[in-house]
Amino acid sequence: MSAALEILLQEPSYHGGAQLLESSIGHMRKWLAVHEISRNARQSGRSTTKAEQSRIKMMLAQLYRGFASCSDTPAFYYVQELSELYPEAQVIVTVRDRERWWESKVAVNNAMRKWWLPFVLWPIPTSGTSYGFIACLI
């Protein structure tokens, strides 16, 4: 999807898997901060406050600066916030068989939980932060 959007728009598209591993540590820390706000609210059994929503939107605008589109994770966690930030944006919804999608998601999540993964990712400068980011999501 991301590659198709880049061809259609002739501008960069933010795909979580690629950008997250290729980004700076500061970029990853900002994503961690966004996720921690959301996670803390969920774990407290509440919705995010107006102030938290504003902070999330401000950070999302910074994280997606320079990109004409986004796809996959982490964008799908923040559809409401992104829709509010970019009200003129067009949204493309893809449809997959629910069971096959869930099996795929579980397989990716299980792969990310491997005890040895931090050792394999260690040579990548942002890997420690990436692993923390992944832990927030699963």
Task: Outline the structure in words.
The protein is mainly alpha-helical and 138 residues long. The chain has eight helices and two strands, in the order αβαααβαααα. It has helices at residues 2-9, 16-22, 25-43, 50-63, 79-85, 98-112, 117-121, 127-137; strands at residues 13-15, 69-71. It has a two-stranded parallel sheet with strand order 1-2. Helix 4 (50-63) crosses helix 5 (79-85). The radius of gyration is 16 Å and the shape is globular.
Notable features of this structure?
8 helices; 2 strands; single chain; 138 residues; mainly alpha; two-stranded parallel ribbon
Radius of gyration: 16 Å
As laid out across the biggest beta sheet, the strand order is 1-2
Percentage beta strand: under 5%
Discrete helix count: 8
Estimate percent helicity: 55-70%
Give the low-confidence spans.
Answer: none
The major beta sheet can be summarized as:
2 strands, parallel
What would you call the structural class?
Answer: mainly alpha
Query: Got a strand count?
Result: 2
Give me the strand/helix succession.
HEHHHEHHHH
Anisotropy-based shape? globular
Say what oligomer this is. Answer: single chain
N-to-C span: 23 Å
The overall average pLDDT, rounded, is 83
What is the topology?
Elements: H1 2-9, E1 13-15, H2 16-22, H3 25-43, H4 50-63, E2 69-71, H5 79-85, H6 98-112, H7 117-121, H8 127-137
Parallel strand pairs: 1-2
Helix pairs in contact: 3-4, 3-8, 4-5
Short description:
The chain has 138 residues and is mainly alpha-helical.
